[in-house]
Amino acid sequence: MAVQHSTVVFLVEGDNILLAMKKRGFAAAGQLHFKNQGGLPDMMVHIFMCTAWDGEPVESEEMAPRWFKISDIPYDKMWQDDPFWLPQVLGGKYISGNFVFDEHDTMLSHEVREA
Predict the structure, then answer these.
(1) Stated pTM of the model
(2) Fewer CB within 10 A of the end CB, N or C, for the chain?
(3) Phi-psi region for residue 77, left (φ > 0), alpha (ψ -120 to 50) or beta?
């Protein structure tokens, strides 16, 4: 099965970050590889931080964006892998990570390193 490539961009303004609560589909500065054992395609996710943009983020069929203080990111409502890599990215590190999930979206293993 082919690896699906995806890009995630986080909007950061001061000590605030725009997170989008996923309504459907998948989401994930760095590079993360997700191996899915449940028949879903493996994913390579490229991560970028953006501190300047035009326009206002709006809700879509797929995402519901909401601003959070970086100190109050709701990791308990996010994918299991996010606490392992997002704090490092927010700290200015370029990371590389590997995650394995089972068919029930349970994380089986993880490895994150500074690249």
Answers:
(1) 0.84
(2) N
(3) alpha
